[in-house]
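Many introductory courses stop at the sequence. We go one step further.
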Amino acid sequence: MAYRPITIDALQIGMHVAKLGVAWFRSPFMRHSFLIRTDEQIEKLRRAGVKHLSIDPAKGLDLPGTAAAPQDEPGAMGQPSVPPAQSTSEVRSLATMTQELLTARTARAQLEVSVQATFSRIAQTGIVDPEEATHTVHAISAVAQALNTHALFMAFSQGRDGHAPLSQHALAACSFSMILAHAADYNLLAIQELATGALLHDIGLMQVPPHILQRIHDTSTTLSAQNRRAYEVHARAGAILLERRGGFAPAVEQIVAEHHAYLNGSGFPAETGGAFTSDMTRLMMVTDRYDELLTGFGGASPLTPHQSLQRLYQEGQEGRYENRLISLFVKVMGIYPVYSYVSLTTGERAIVSVINSGKLHQPIVTITQDPSGEPYIVPLVVDLANQDEQAPPREVRSVLGAIPAEFERAFH
């Protein structure tokens, strides 16, 4: 990607910022890649201490009178709204990919501690502090800015089960919702409200008797009418909890109240029609369901990210969720998500490196082992959508998991 370094004094309306010369936590914006539309944006960057940055002339204005080609810089990480490039020149090394995944897992563990502390205070006091919720969402946003989006997605898509604390599900749903909201081009305020609603969407479950929750999580057997009502009231109870405390936007309360009001009328509360839910609520339903599939909610077997996206797409076809949002989620994350360890039809094994947005079934892969299981001395990078006619045809046969432990040990 061709970027041009400039100073803040040269920045003008119409230029597309590609990279900021400050740490992620000092940026006044959710993203480090965006189009300058107002003088206010430039002033915010000045106040944040930005003195140097890079612009992308291919997406906006260039410096006046500039004819020479800008210098090349690697793309900035952590831009959820920008689809991965399709060029093999942008495939990272296995060492880089492994480190990205390990970093994302470490960040996830740190966030889990913070979110668990927030949920523990809510359980003890029965009060949801809007300032604390905002602070927690900002912390999650900062991590999303700093990390590779696909690494963050994979880190939250593995290593949990249906017995994990409620706070872990809340954190995952919040993170997935941010990723999808960026892809849907939500503005900053909408992302903040959506993330807050996603973080707190199941807060009413703290008022449901533990034995009922245990049964719902562990088995698909039918509950008694009384227990079913006790469970279903959690959506309304959570919204009431926020309303009584005050300080939360109506959009946040609506997400909490309606996140089970499915589009086909099969959800609850009964008086809430799925056709009248907000776009934010519908987005949150998608990410909530994705995480349920990952962790085996309702007594089902936990699924891989690939299987969860497949199942989610199938359920969207049945009318329960918003097809448009599911399709966008799959397009951004890929049918075979980045970092997936896959078996090819040739018997080789590979790691998915880049998503081909136009041909999701045919990502760019880094082949690590030959058909006999022996490692290639130099891994092969192959674009499955644009293969050499002289080479054996390759397709993904199955997903084996994420980057194997031996690679993590080798590159850690």
